[in-house]
TrEMBL record:
The keyword 4Fe-4S applies. The keyword Transmembrane does not apply. The gene is napA_1. GO terms for cellular component: membrane. It is an enzyme of class 1 (oxidoreductase). It is found in: Membrane. This is Nitrate reductase. GO terms for biological process: formate metabolic process; respiratory electron transport chain. Its EC number is 1.7.99.4.
Amino acid sequence: MFNEGVPDKKVKTTCPFCGVGCNYDLNVREGKVIGVTSNLTSVVNGRLTCVKGRFGIDYIHSPERLTTPLIKKNGEFVAASWDEALELIATRFNEIKSKHGNDALAAISSARCVNEDNYIMQKFMRAVIGTNNVDHCARTCHAPTVAGLAASFGSGAMTNSIGEVADSKVIFLIGGNPTEAHPVIAAKMRQALRKGAKLIVADPRKIELAGKADVFMQLRPGTDIALINGLMHIILKSGWHDLEFIKACTVDFDLVADVVEKYTPEYVQNITGVPAHLLREAARIYATAERAAIFYTLGITEHTCGTDNVMSLANLAMLTGNVGKLNAGVNPMRGQNNVQGSCDMGALPNVYSGYQKVNDPQSQEKFEKAWGVTLSDQIGLMLPDMIDAAVEGTLKAMYVMGEDPVLTDGDANHVRKGFANLEFLVVQNLFMTETGKLADVILPGASFAEKDGTFTNCERRVQRVRKAIEPIGNSLPDWQIIRDLANKMGYPMAYNNASEIMDEMAALSPMFAGLSFERIDENGLQWPVPSKEHPGSQYLHKDGKFTSGAGVFKAIEHQPPGEEPDAEYPFVLTTGRILYHYNITTAGKSKQLTEFRPEEQVMIHPDDAKRLGINNQDMIEVASRRGSVQAKAWVTTDVLPGGIWMSFHFVNAPTNQVTSGFYDKVTKTYEYKVCAVQVAKAAG
Ligand code: SF4
């Protein structure tokens, strides 16, 4: 039984689930992880952990772990040696490069893997394959955060720190449900409320924290910009804006003032469904506080206007001078454990590590010199573009590390078609996945418990991941696999350990120049950390000194979602995470988490359920223009009439067969939060 027995040793490490980045001790006995206990020296979480961190990592020893390379022969996977598998991949990659060009190959890196894996993957694609076609699942979640906050503030990351949350005075939570998705941050928010903080919640669902809010605005999905513009309208009309901060630290304020003029409370009520008096009260609480902090997650980013949503929140914070000080700022709670880090490491098609642009000649020259190759200055394909190119036949081969896009990306049938159409597919993972089933070669990676490295949490803190047990079977740490493949392809990589990889990355990336395993050993360091003497940065843009020089206001209008309900598909489906699961692959293999919540459930309002003759726990079918899925009904007033809500955690109810392929116009992040569906009681 997990979490029972006396350990031989305890190894402090960082949780592999969400972006909070809790530290705890892995309890090890006879080479096996037998449980998790709190480590009070953990600067992020102290003694706190959530159910996932405490019970979910029994997947490490799942009997379903891949333990040896597999090569598909005559439609069946056959066990192979590492040498045989890597030789085949090197040969096929080289053939495809010669025949179709470097850009006929692409890689998906992973926010589940350590920074060092991600750095090596992007280096492999750029230096060995010769393309910038590398991306990862930030594309499906917080890419609009990176783009939006970089455009407004100059840095695409959480401005403040988790440690500040418990002392917040005002929390404005919009499009996020930390109780389920970031439970330790939710616990700190509840601590703040006990100390007298005010809470404003805006969400289409009545989430747990909505019950504790001073103001709860249950807005229609996809109307965030109208709501935020409405708040700014009231703040300006009431004279609650911080003119001194605006004049000294920002540009283009007048453009925003012009745009929000028409967003009167009544106009906003028509778009959002939020009563005007609630909007006025929320504006008063947020703008008249000495300090107010905004928190959000994917309810903001996963829209066709995701980047605009993020920049709207940045507008609101700058309007009230709530940037560059404690207990304030704009705080995206990043989803996956290392989605911040995988972006930081350059697992993106347009930047090297440290957000140095691939089409900037100086950056290109620096990396060419360090890596000893000629590099492409062409921005690579984003993940949805890779799928489209695979469907069209221009992309011939892919290397997918630590992800299962067939289950996780929007419009899953289209994604499956793309992968099935490739000439050659390599999948590296802990488990056989839906994407893996389509692969030519499967490579077994090692879990976080079996390797050294670092994760970067959502507050920009780079923390140690420490090896507690030997890799299971013949699996290997991901960076070692890529290193060995690079050597097979004739490009020498000679790293002996993950620490050497971090040293190379730090030497090439000014914002991370002060990082080393030695310096982060105790409590990690929050970037920017530009020198070996720099103590790290608790919050960004101190005293209004933005990374970009001045904060930039962006004039943004409300925009409808990519797909709206109509007579044929009258419901709006929104998707999200639940407490007991974490995406699909790893948590889905946890026996304990699966026992907590074994199956998908569709939240539907009682009025709609009654009209359709649906009772609680009836099996229902949810169908869109792209596909359908069946799951049990959960009749609840937590959702609005006309709206339904599902998670995306269950392989036997793949929600993304239904979700839309519309995406954010800047970052191509799928619009998981709004799609038009029909709902009916399942036949039989
Ligand atoms: Fe892990 Fe997140 Fe839970 Fe902390 S809050 S234990 S990081 S899943």
